[in-house]
Amino acid sequence: TDAAEAQVVVATLARVRELLTELEPELGRLDAVAGDGDHGRGMLRGAGAAADAAAAAADAGHGAVACLRDAGRAWADRAGGTSGVLWGAGIGAVAHALAARPVADPAARAAAAARAGVAAVVTLGGAKQGDKTMVDAAEPFAAALEQAAGAGQAPAAAWDAALEAARTAAQATADLRPRLGRARPLAERSVGTPDPGAVSFAAIVAAVRSTVVP
Ligand code: ADP
Ligand code: MG
Ligand code: MG
C-alpha cells in the first residue's frame, strides 16, 4: 500500500541519517584534503532535514512520492553546499520517476528511478564522468542497475551488482584530478584520495538497499 511505501521512505532516510552520523568525520577528512572540509557536516544536515520532512509528510498521511519530494526539498534547503543542492534535485527526480511508474518490476523500477536521479544531478551540476565528483559513482551505479534489471535479475542481485559498481568506482576516483567544484584549485593535492561525494554516494546507496530490498 502507499502508506507502507511511505514508511519504507521514512525508514530509509532514518537509516541514511544514521549512516551519515557515523561517516561524518571521515567525509569531512576526505573533503579537507583539497576542498573545504564540510562534506560530512553538510550531508548529515541534509539527510537529517530530509528524514524529518519525510516523517512529517508520512504522519500527515501522504504517500511515498510526496514524502520523497518533501525530503528532497528539505535536503537542498538545509544541507548547504554543492552536494546538498544536487542531492535535493536527485531525490526530487527519483520521486518524480517513482510517481510515473507505479507498477513495474521492482528492479526495473529502481533502475528507472536511479537513472532519473543521476540525470537530474548531471543536468544541474554539469559534471561528466572523470571530473572526480559523485557522478563518477552514480553513473556506474545506475548503469549496473539498468543492466541487471534488463537481464531479468531479482532486485537483491541487481542491487548487489550496482552497489559493487558504485563502491569500486568511488574508490577509483582516487586516481583522478577534480575538474569541477571547490577541490579544483587544489586538484593535485587530491590525487590519492577518493572524491568525498563519490564515497558518500556509494555508502548511501548501500544503506538504501538495506531498507528497500527485503
Ligand atoms: P561544497 O563543495 O560546496 O563544500 P560538499 O563538500 O558538501 O559541497 O560536496 C562536495 C562534493 O560535491 C564533491 O566531492 C563532489 O562529489 C560533489 N560535486 C561538486 N561539484 C559538483 C558538480 N558540479 N556535479 C556533481 N557533483 C559535484
Ligand atoms: Mg565541501
Ligand atoms: Mg562548502
UniProtKB/TrEMBL annotation:
Highest taxon, organism lineage: Bacteria
Q: What is the residue range of the signal peptide feature?
A: none
Domain DhaL, which positions? Answer: 7-210
Name it. Answer: Dihydroxyacetone kinase family protein
